[in-house]
Amino acid sequence: MKNQKIIASLATASMAAFGTGEADAQLGKSDLLDTDFKGSLLYYTETDRVSAIEAIIDGSYFLNNRDTIGFRLTFDSLTGASANGAVPTDRAQTFTRPSGNGDYTTAANETPLDDTFLDTRYALALTWDRKWDGNWQSIIGTAFSNEYDYRSLSINTLLSYKTDDRNRTYSGGLSLFSDTISPVGGLPTSFGLMGNPDEIQQRSGEEDEKIVMDALFGITQVIDSRSLVQFGYSVSSSEGYLNDPYKFISVVGADGRPVTQDLATGLSQVVFESRPDSRLKQSFFIKYKRDLFDSHVFDSSYRFMTDDWGINSHTFDFKYKWRLSEVSYLEPHLRIYQQNDADFFTPFFTQGNVPAAGSGSYASPDYRLGEMMAYTVGLEYGRDNVDRPWSIALEYYLQGLGGREGIFGELRNQDLSEDVSAFVVRFNMDF
């Protein structure tokens, strides 16, 4: 499950609704060859935290000028340490491992990290791309992924229509995900107290389900021979188990220090988070793409997302494809992301104000639900007009968290908004 939080999920076939003609380009290859394969390798590493390797193989088989069968194989491997949600303090803290077997200790004045982060994911996606008479095109797909504590099965479809003058495309897509969450040690009880190692922990079951339904609609409009604009709207509804079973909330005393639950072991008093069992997200998207002099391409987009958890976010993305020659290019990249806190974002509880276990209240310390600004800068070099196109990209990611209200005592001396930085290296090749 942690894997799902770090690496973005596979783009479903319906996401092609906001594409720029990739499906048409693939169909056009059928005159030249029957198969096409692409490979991608990604390395991601956070400073002193998580590292990940992702390998992807994409394949297409062109049955004829109308039909293309595609597949994607993905393998992810993640190691390292991830924030468990507890606040730092001026003394060492001990926590029980997610399984309930054993414990780990975080040094004084350091963000508590769970060092048990080890995960792999295997995924397979299949698509059937069909170009119909009358300017219609459809994509139908299915996907399956598996990790040791998370399984996902999905189906998706896209329908698009291109006007006779080929200048405008209307697209609509649907997808359905059925996920099974099986956390190590079972499902923790919401606001349940983390017990001592090797004791019976408060659990509400072994596994649970989550259903996600997505719908998206898009319009692509060619402005002139050098530019186009895209508009998109998407809505996503999630129902079921939406907690992170590995996140818990510190209980602090009047001095702003986490309460010690067991003096003999030094175990800190923490309770597991609780999120609503439903979430509705809406996104609005606009993209402008311009072919400048000598085939230089400027690409810009903006996305606004809002949900019923109280989060509003803004994403700006800019790329400039600078031609070095007929066969090579450089592409700088800048991405800016901003969001506010979720309504129930709670970095800590004060002693005596912890909701009762299973009370139906909501609270989460997950920084991904808190106020943040994030920046991504990168540079890609590639060779495209060759028999075997390839590219390599290097990106730097920096995430800064917003201020935390209501801090007092020792909490004032701690960095509750520690920045997260990461490097990403990505290599792509057709073969």
How does this structure look, described?
- It is built from two helices and 25 strands.
- It has 431 residues and is an all-beta fold.
- It has a single domain, classed as monomeric porin ompg (Porin, Beta Barrel).
- Strands 1-2-3-6-7-8-9-12-13-18-19-20-21-23-24-25 form a 16-stranded antiparallel beta barrel. A three-stranded mixed beta sheet has the order 17-14-22, with no helix packed on it.
- The longest helix has 7 residues, at 22-28.
- The two termini are 32 Å apart.
Index terms:
single chain, 431 residues, mainly beta, Porin, 16-stranded antiparallel barrel, 3-stranded mixed β-sheet, 2 helices, elongated
Brief summary:
The protein contains 2 helices and 25 strands.
- One letter per element, helices H and strands E, the order comes to HHEEEEEEEEEEEEEEEEEEEEEEEEE
Strand numbers in spatial order across the main sheet:
1-2-3-6-7-8-9-12-13-18-19-20-21-23-24-25
Mean pLDDT: 89
What would you call the structural class?
mainly beta
Helix content: under 10%
How is this fold's topology laid out?
Blueprint: H1 2-6, H2 22-28, E1 35-46, E2 51-62, E3 67-83, E4 93-96, E5 103-106, E6 113-131, E7 136-147, E8 150-162, E9 168-181, E10 187-188, E11 203-205, E12 208-224, E13 227-240, E14 248-252, E15 260-262, E16 267-268, E17 270-272, E18 278-291, E19 297-307, E20 312-323, E21 328-339, E22 348-350, E23 372-383, E24 390-401, E25 420-430
Parallel strand pairs: 14-22
Antiparallel strand pairs: 1-2, 1-25, 2-3, 3-6, 4-5, 6-7, 7-8, 8-9, 9-12, 10-11, 12-13, 13-18, 14-17, 15-16, 18-19, 19-20, 20-21, 21-23, 23-24, 24-25
